[in-house]
């Protein structure tokens, strides 16, 4: 049986991961050949957190 709360966590995790990935691409690489390490760390950390939420939501839903 599907648990609605974990299904919501799964959706939040998926869309947060997608948004964080787009944020990483846009903000960590402002110009060709240039990488902003601080922005990459923040957005990469967000990607890791949302990916973990997504996986936890899929397993526990």
Automatic annotation (TrEMBL):
Keywords: Membrane, Transmembrane, Transmembrane helix. The chain crosses the membrane at residues 6-29, 41-60. It comes from the Bacteria. This is Uncharacterized protein. It comes from Geobacter metallireducens.
């Amino acid at each position: 049986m599907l648990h609605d709360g974990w299904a919501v966590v799964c959706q939040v995790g998926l869309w947060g991961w997608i948004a964080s990935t787009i944020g990483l691409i846009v903000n960590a690489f402002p110009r060709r050949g240039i990488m902003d390490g601080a922005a990459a760390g923040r957005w990469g950390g967000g990607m890791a957190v949302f990916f973990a939420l997504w996986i936890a939501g899929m397993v526990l839903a």
